[in-house]
Write a structure and sequence with these properties.
The protein has about 375 residues and is α/β, with parallel strands linked by helices. Helices cover about 45% and strands about 20% of the residues. Strands 1, 2, 3, 4, 5 and 12 form a six-stranded mixed sheet that branches. A six-stranded mixed sheet has the order 8-7-6-9-11-10, with helices on both faces. Helix 7 (about 195-200) crosses helix 14, helix 8 packs across helix 14 (about 305-320) and helix 12 runs antiparallel to helix 14. The two termini are about 35 Å apart. The model is unreliable at about 1-10, about 15-20 and about 355-365 (pLDDT under 50).
Length: about 375
Amino acid sequence: MADKKAPGTREKRGAQRNGKTAPLFAAVDLGTNNCRLLVAEPRGKTFRVVDSHSQIARLGEGLHETGRLSDAAIERAIDALRNIRKKLKQHGVGRVRCIATEACRKAANGAEFIRRVHEETGLTFKIIGAKEEARLATIGCHDLIEPNASSVLVVDIGGGSTELSWVDARAARENGFKGLLEHAPILDWTSLPLGVVTLSEAFGHLDEVEAYPLMLDHARQTIASWPGIAAVREAMAESEAHMIGTSGTVTCLAGVHLKLDRYRRDKVDGTWLSQEDGLAAIKLLRDVGMDGRIKLPTIGNERAGLMLSGCAIVDAVWEACPAGRLRVADRGLREGLLLSMMYGPKKPKPRRRGRRGRKSGQTQTGGDDQKGIQDGG
């Protein structure tokens, strides 16, 4: 895939053979911590990124204790989504798909929040299940699977949960790109109640020096509770199996390991991180403390407070699969969503209803693509 562009930038779009520019697609991912947008145009069996945007909204802040999205978190998320709507209008995007994940799945007022988002921004979100989240992340990372790999463990660390997907790499190659989109060859998967926000909040009352080993032990126990981990560990012991890590935690760890003076996707995406190098980066982040992490150019103020909880999850996954090489992915859910929109099986168009059958004020369902964002709303 092409490199992502800095937020707010847009390259001149290339013309197609018929003289028309390619249609634009957009994926919006509303997670427990971040709200992300990716705008792209189709290119072969992949796409070229036109624009991207990420804004930390901390939608799941306090959810662990109350079971509800707080008023402050809702306002932050709606503000982020208003900014995204402006970008969609600016680019004249033709197709938009918006998904919400763990925070909205768990919150008692998640569906109510989604309705409010539609009323105030015009964006229609679908709250997807953990299995669909795992499938999309696998599709988004498919071209980071090594050509000789027998199986791959995709590790998707989010703000409220971590999805582990054990993928049959041979089947992925044999079935081809179309087969991957129609049926991702996931042998086993789980969604663990481990996320950088929820884990950090659960141990937030402790000093971080005391909290880290407790977070690590909790992550160990949670991963060990998955019945599939034994088979994955055995597969990871083979030389032709590896892991793919898709999350801000993993990309930031790679940036620290590479000693980058600024975040560079072209350096991070696709790089390999050994367990030894990964643990060395984790030790550095623990040793420098909060103030030191803030000063690191690939961490900064917004991520510094959540890095250790993410590191505890990565550390625990590596302990469970000590022989596994980890390939770093600056891609995942949004990329999988875009590829599915552009090249996946087409849904049959709904039958048009007459005026008598159409309800006043009817809106489209969250599972369908939304057509171009227009003025107003």
